[in-house]
Amino acid sequence: AQSVTQLGSHVSVSEGALVLLRCNYSSSVPPYLFWYVQYPNQGLQLLLKYTSAATLVKGINGFEAEFKKSETSFHLTKPSAHMSDAAEYFCAVSDLRNTDKLIFGTGTRLQVFP
Amino acid sequence: DTAVSQTPKYLVTQMGNDKSIKCEQNLGHDTMYWYKQDSKKFLKIMFSYNNKELIINETVPNRFSPKSPDKAHLNLHINSLELGDSAVYFCASSQVSSGQVYTGELFFGEGSRLTVL
């Protein structure tokens, strides 16, 4: 069965610092992978997705993620954090039996300090 | 216009009561979902409907009954509410139809926070 593991439930960075949020996946076949962001009291919003094309995926708000098959990872990065990036971030993998079903990780809360 | 809208946004009720949450999407999508997010932010799918047909039912207690009168609406009715039902319930939609390229993008509503006392 597919699954994702997000290492670190909380990540804190200073404004302007590099953001790195970790996600490892488990899948017997090449997966589709996603990062979603949830701002306070809002629903989730797609940041970016990997669907077996380019391994380096660029998303909205300056975020990007790299699919590394050898490491079964799909870490999310941003070169310079903004205060507005403070949110909960979820990694997700599609269930290959039901491609419209997403399996979410437990989330990582990003805090950005001035 | 809100793409996926849910009502009510907040719901506080007593154990044993029955309550409903409504969801509507104006994106023209074929597939709608209910997700439950618990107090630890863990998000898990409950149901999905494609063109009013139930596709996914993730071992949810039968006290939870989804209903899709048309492909733009998916409501969730919960009978005999329990303390453990307290959570945020998210409705979502996506365009997943046979013959279409899978995008994997879900569009979420803002959530309905249910508190059972």
Characterization of this structure:
- The complex is a heterodimer of chains A (114) and B (117).
- The N and C termini of chain A lie far apart (41 Å).
- In chain A, the strands form two sheets. In chain A, strands 2, 4, 5, 9, 10 and 11 form a six-stranded mixed beta sheet that branches. In chain A, strands 1-3-8-7-6 form a five-stranded antiparallel beta sheet, with no helix packed on it.
- Chain A has 114 residues and is an all-beta fold.
- Chain A has strands spanning 3-7, 10-14, 19-26, 33-38, 44-50, 56-58, 64-68, 73-78, 87-95, 98-104, 108-113.
- Chain A has no helices and eleven strands.
- With 117 residues, chain B is mostly beta strands.
- In chain B, 0% of the residues lie in helices and 54% in strands.
- Chain B has strands spanning 4-7, 10-13, 19-25, 31-37, 43-50, 53-57, 64-70, 73-78, 87-94, 107-108, 112-116.
- In chain B, the strands form two sheets. In chain B, strands 2, 4, 5, 6, 9, 10 and 11 form a seven-stranded mixed beta sheet that branches.
- The relative contact order of chain B is 0.33.
- The mean pLDDT of chain B is 89.
List keywords for this structure.
heterodimer; A: 114 residues; mainly beta; six-stranded mixed beta sheet; 11 strands; 0% helix; 59% strand; globular; B: 117 residues; seven-stranded mixed beta sheet; four-stranded antiparallel beta sheet
